[in-house]
User: Fold this.
Amino acid sequence: MPARPAALVAAELESSADALSAEVAVVAPELLLHRETDAAPVMDDAVEVVEAEAVVDEAVAVDEAVVEDEVVEEVVQPEPRAPRSKRRPVRATAPESPAATPAEVEVALSVQGLTKYFGGSPAVDGIDLVVAPGSFFGIVGPNGAGKTTTLSMITGLLRPDDGVVRVFGLDVWQNATLAKRKIGVLPDRLRLFDRLTGAEFLYHAGALRGLDRATIAQRAADLSAAFGLEHSLHRLVSDYSAGMTKKIAIAAAMIHAPRLLVLDEPFESVDPVSAAVVIGVLRRFVDAGGTVILSSHSMELTERVCDGVAIIADGRVLAEGRMDEVLEGRSLEERFVELAGGEAAVKGMEWLQNFSD
Assistant:
């Protein structure tokens, strides 16, 4: 049998090693041990060919040693796996929400099956809501109905146990960064940075939203003028009245020009004059194409301002839709009491007519 050139044998060895290295680079860590045992026959076969033909010179031997070193460096021993009893349980990943349809993209807010439990009891029990763009939408309900919990999950402040929330087609939890850019929020019982002046507070809010200094200055001036705060921007927020505090907080929620404003009890502890100013600004926002969702205990104000409403009790939607459709010819207060069961709670208290004296 004629001797094969040493260079040809070395080239075959390098080709085999390159192929093996490529396999090792893409193999899963738990399979590396198997790959290491598979690598040995490749090297053994090569050595047998070299010994049988007796054509390996010193250069080939050096090349072979280099190839073996490269293969060994690629094959990394995985760390020993912990016994099954000591492994941490694997949490099941939540399934991705289905992609939004073109119709959902045209909806300002879409809520499907929204659920949240506290202590084993549902605070929000499978709520469904649809709010059209350019709407002034109100959410009303008794104390403990789940309004604040619902709004917190809608705005990404509280993670739901189940359900999907989309803002203009963007899933609030799957696309949080993009979705939250479209939302302005006034949470219930918001704690402000009240040791800042009004001007500093608005600058802080704009900077957090990534606005440049010139844009913040222009928008802060416009918002303070609209809310009647231009002469109070030099004062500390801690010195503001309840109405002024609400107005500066709403201004901060609007400074990045969101498409959706979610306001939890924006008129609580607010005097009628300040409430009228806030309503005027919000109506201008809606007329320009924005969408406002607010919760309130004021039935008369909600009925007067909003064009859509949802009545919530015990974490469920009792009625939802356009204002005239929900009211059915009655006032919002009458409809609310009827659905929430307020009249039934008053019955059976005839003993109050028998005075103790």
Strands lie at 109-118, 121-131, 136-140, 162-167, 170-171, 183-186, 260-264, 291-295, 308-313, 316-322.
